[in-house]
Design brief:
Order of helices and strands: EEEHHHHEEHEHEHEHEHEHHEHEEEHEH
Strand order of the largest sheet: 5-6-7-8-9-10-11
Number of helices: 14
Bound molecules: 2-succinylbenzoate, magnesium ion
Strand content: 15-25%
Structural class: alpha/beta
Oligomer: single chain
Number of strands: 15
């Protein structure tokens, strides 16, 4: 494809309510967007790096540096035909997967538009509708949490995931199970437990949770496998899995029985599909995680979730849970049954609101292909 320009920008978007995990509170997102312009079309990608390097080593600022200083130039020099060519083009840059994903996903988005097919179809998706869950952050009190859950259930979401940490776990699960015994519940520890908490974690088995996500270290397989062998509740790995090889290692060692796939964490659509396929071949279900994305990243999560083995509800939910005004049109909405319909229009299926993006932009760099070849 002939690229006319690659635009990297940072936008700032305040969340409608703060989101608290075991590693901190997020009030405003600083999101890096990548736009690949070609013959009147624009492919867009979102970098899911956090404001601080707390979830992974990347942050908004490291991703900016790598995108503007390295990746955009590598891409401009090659002008590939397919999103799937990007991993090879970016290979000499180690790691920095969230930065890579922003550009790679923009190329897939552009490719789908050029082909005139939905992004989900280009990825090999088979679902027309996806099931949605919500991830609920740590709240200031249990009554406040129960109110929040009540609202999300009234909106139709199919499963509730509660962020947990030592001191915010069994008491919370107990309250939930008492009040909503029929509703699917999972939890996400974001690495907040250690091996000496093992007996405490075994007590979670009483609550019939769908899974416990990333209980131990962010970079561990071995101790998760020791834990999983004695735990009835399935472990789901998030932070630990960066590629297909790690997914295979985790499955073969029984470090987990479920995998959360995040586009940014694995470096883009190519690797996300590879992880999905490897898990499917071994009978391990996957679901699509979220990173407090704007509508662009959210649209990409929706397309990814159309693949066959995304058999559990994802953390893919409505724009309005995060933003007063999203940057796509229509905004992402979830039906009363807790579902999102996969768009059937070319590309990502949600138009970018360029006027809003311009207003939110705090810095921008344009890399012009011709100047570089
Ligand atoms: O671990 O899944 C996670 C948000 C930021 C960083 C890590 C995680 C999350 C979420 C939010 O759980 C999911 C969402 O609603 O986007
Ligand atoms: Mg997680």
């Amino acid at each position: 494809m002939k690229f006319d320009a690659i635009v990297i920008r940072e936008i700032r978007m305040p969340l409608v309510r703060p989101f608290e995990t075991s590693f901190g509170v997020t009030r405003e997102r600083r999101i890096v967007l990548a736009e690949v312009q070609s013959e009147g079309l624009s492919g867009w990608g979102e970098c899911t790096a956090g404001e601080h390097p707390y979830f992974s080593e990347e942050s908004t600022d490291t991703a900016w540096q790598v995108l503007v200083g390295e990746l955009a130039h590598l891409l401009a020099a090659e002008q590939p035909e397919h999103g799937g060519d990007c991993p090879r083009i970016f290979r000499r840059v180690r790691g920095n997967r969230m930065a890579k994903a922003a550009l790679e996903n923009a190329v897939w988005d552009l490719e789908a538009q050029r082909e005139g097919i939905p992004l989900a179809a280009l990825l090999g998706g088979v679902r027309e509708i996806i099931s949605c869950g919500v991830s609920i952050g740590i709240q200031e009190s249990i009554p406040r949490l129960l109110e929040t859950i009540e609202c999300e259930l009234a909106a139709g979401y199919q499963r509730i995931k509660l962020k947990c940490k030592p001191g915010w776990d069994v008491e919370v699960f107990e309250k939930f199970c008492c009040r909503w015994p029929e509703i699917a519940l999972t939890c996400d520890a974001n690495s907040s437990y250690r091996l000496h908490d093992a007996d405490h974690i075994f007590s979670f088995d009483a609550f019939d949770l769908g899974m416990i996500e990333q209980p131990l270290w962010h970079d561990d397989f071995y101790y998760h496998s020791i834990l999983q062998k004695r735990l009835e509740t399935p472990i789901c790995l998030d932070e630990s899995i960066h590629n297909r090889r790690e997914a295979l290692a985790a499955i073969e060692n029984e470090s987990c029985r479920i995998i959360n796939i995040k586009l940014g964490r694995v470096g883009g659509f190519s690797e996300a599909i590879a992880v999905h396929n490897a898990a499917m071949e071994r009978g391990t279900p996957v679901w699509c995680g979220g990173m407090l994305e704007s509508g662009i990243g959210r649209a990409h999560n929706i397309a990814l979730s159309s693949l066959e083995n995304f058999s559990l509800p994802g953390d893919v939910s409505a724009s309005a849970r995060y933003w007063a005004e999203d940057i796509v049109e229509p905004e992402i909405v979830v039906s009363a049954k807790g579902e999102i319909a996969i768009p059937d229009t070319p590309g990502r299926g949600y138009e970018v609101r360029r006027d809003r993006i311009e207003r939110l932009t705090v810095r921008r760099e344009t890399i012009r292909a011709m100047a570089l070849v």
